[in-house]
Specification:
By secondary structure, this protein is of the alpha+beta class. It is built from 8 helices and 11 strands. It has helices at about 15-20, 20-25, 75-95, 115-130, 195-205, 215-225, 245-250, 265-275; strands at about 35-40, 45-50, 55-65, 95-105, 135-140, 145-155, 170-175, 210, 230-235, 260, 285-290. The strands form 2 sheets. A 6-stranded mixed sheet has the order 1-2-3-6-4-5, covered by helices on one side. A 5-stranded antiparallel sheet has the order 8-10-7-11-9, sandwiched between helices. The protein is globular and about 60 Å long.
Amino acid sequence: MKMKSSPGKNTAATLSDLGEDRVVAALIQGFAAGADVLVGAGDDCAVIGRPRDRRWQLLKTDAVVEGVHFLPEEDPRRVGWKALCRAISDIAAMGGVPGHALITLAATGSTPFARVKALYAGLQKAARKYGVALVGGETSRSPGPLFLSIALTGWVEPKYCLRRSGGRPGDSLYVTGRLGGTLAGKHLDFSPRLEEARWLAAHFKPHAMMDLSDGLATDLPRLAAASQCGYEIEEDRLPLAVGCGPRQAMTDGEDYELLFSIAARSGTSLEVAWKRRFPRLPLTCIGRLTHQSKAGNRNVSRGYDHFAQP
């Protein structure tokens, strides 16, 4: 990446100037990858293993930061739940099963111990629910704000491993659940689609899949770009959370639903089988992948960006 400069002026780009995707792309350039690294930076998880292994290892790290991902006055049990479930959602997006987690907590010395205990109660609740073993971590003093960082392992069988990059022009695009509603508290109480993702991998194996963490308007272009495709969506078909409109569904972020592409000819059988297996969870076809030169809706709106937000 080239930074322009001129005498007497500091014109170096900031994180906000670049935005999250460009920052990450620049930082991961030159990352060393061993022979056992099947998928490195740029997908929902890293994948480690050999082609003939019975299982591949999944690696994921994630963080929640006070004032960014939750407010100081919010229930710490719900915050702990969210912290672990965010990482579990990425394991699900790869078609995998979560395994072991390390937790890092940084907080001011004046933080009430009862608050920290409640955070860990939420972590433990999520761990019990989704079969995760909490095996250690780190605590550190911080000048603030409080944050929790999660390092999570998992596994997936090679035949079930799903990536963002396998989409094909003509594929139908689907999302699970309903979109929008982050500000109403949905982001603290969501359920990662672990069972649904495993079922999809076993019965229909989508060509490409990811979880929706930054909003459809941000994450769909990522999936399309990884698959070297364009996309078209029908906004009037978006499954809306109560009280939300299409723009909120596109841009609110933190839905933690699955976005995936599948051959159009499989759509009808998928919808019938899904309704039978998961009758309470909507599955909606919202559009399709296209040839890259025919991308549609790319500039309709914009989802969440950690660095570009005002």
